[in-house]
Structure formats: structure tokens, C-alpha cells
Write a structure and sequence with these properties.
Layout (H helix, E strand, L loop, with lengths): L1 H26 L8 H16 L18
Length: 69
């Protein structure tokens, strides 16, 4: 009986991992999920904002803070 208990512990863990994995994969496909195209466009906008230097003012005409210029 003890051997059966020791086999049930990893079996329950594997079953729990399988259920968690199925739910984790499924979670991104709901109605509130971010689609790839909007995620990529947000990433590109972020990269463009990070590549601006202090000498190159952004759309608002404000140069980088703390650049002394």
C-alpha cells in the first residue's frame, strides 16, 4: 500500500502539470488577449521611442530630460 501511495504522488503531480499546461496555453486565446499585430506595433513604437536621442525631439517637441540641452 505504501508503494501505491508513493506512485500516486508523482502521478498527481504530472496530472496537475498537464492541466496547468493546457490552461496556460488556452489562456492567451480569449477575448481579452492581445493579438500579434497589435503587440508587434506596440513593440515597434516602444523601440522607436527608446532609439530617440536627447538632441532629437519627439512628436511633442520636448527633448530628452536630463540631457542638459
Amino acid at each position: 500500500m505504501d508503494v501505491l501511495l508513493w506512485w500516486l504522488i508523482p502521478a498527481a503531480g504530472a496530472l496537475g502539470a498537464g492541466v496547468w499546461s493546457a490552461l496556460a496555453v488556452r489562456r492567451g486565446t480569449g477575448s481579452g488577449a492581445v493579438h500579434d499585430s497589435s503587440g508587434v506595433s506596440r513593440h515597434l513604437a516602444f523601440r522607436a521611442a527608446m532609439e530617440r536621442t536627447g538632441r532629437d525631439p519627439g512628436p511633442g517637441g520636448v527633448s530628452g530630460a536630463g540631457q542638459g540641452g
